[in-house]
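Field reference: sequence -> structure
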Amino acid sequence: MPSKHSSEKTSAAKKVLTRKRVAKKKPESLEVAEEQTELLPNKPKDVDQDGTVESNNIGHSSKDLDSADSDNEGASSEGSLSDTRIGQAQDFVQDGCIADAIELYRDILTDSPSNVKVRNSLGVLYDELDHPELALEQFELAESIEPQNVEVLINYGAALGALTRYGEAEGLLLQALAIDPGSVAVRTSIGILNFRRGAYAEAESELRWVCQHDSEFPHAFYYYGETLNRLGRFDEAVIALERAIILQPKNARAFYTLGHLYDRKHMTEEAALMYRKARELR
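Structure field:
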């Protein structure tokens, strides 16, 4: 299966949805909300949100989403400085210094509040550290600046879906799908949303399409395997999850479900190995 949209892989699985044009709670003051980040640790625990996200990938976007502050447009020297600081923040993420990365992103936003790339990356960090309200605020602000930005819509929608706000999440995802109908990231997110709401037939259809079009998309294979398991298609689930643990060797839930499926096939030794690996990862 050929790989498509490789630029989406880092952030894609990560999140997807589309903002419904309905009245909703306005975000709290950004300054007040972000003061809460003083409680964040210097190093994050290994993030395993639904068993699908590895901590060394968080906070990185696959596109160049920089949007200069309108007061500074055309100031190339300031743009270059901003790019340098974004790179430093990304280095902090890779080193596990998440609090430092958040502080630097916030400093950049003080100078350039319309920088969509920074707002998106900051929202991802908040989301991975289980600060959903702070994450949603960043994604909503980013979407208000660039409403056609598919990556932002994905992350915004995924955050809403994780909070079981399925209607709003679906709206954002469908908006992203209208912008980019062939996006494996968008269709994976739609599949995950359907999985979460228990619509397994719809989830299977979307995730099967992704797996057929991109053999390197780990989130799709994990959720496809879990969906097939719930549909009672156990042999197919084994194949999907065996691929998932290759692509995501730190996905504890994938190992555990695979152990359960091996047990069903009376593959005792293989099941024990999967359970042991799942315990080690947790």
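Note: The domain at 213-282 is CATH 1.25.40.10 (Serine Threonine Protein Phosphatase 5, Tetratricopeptide repeat).
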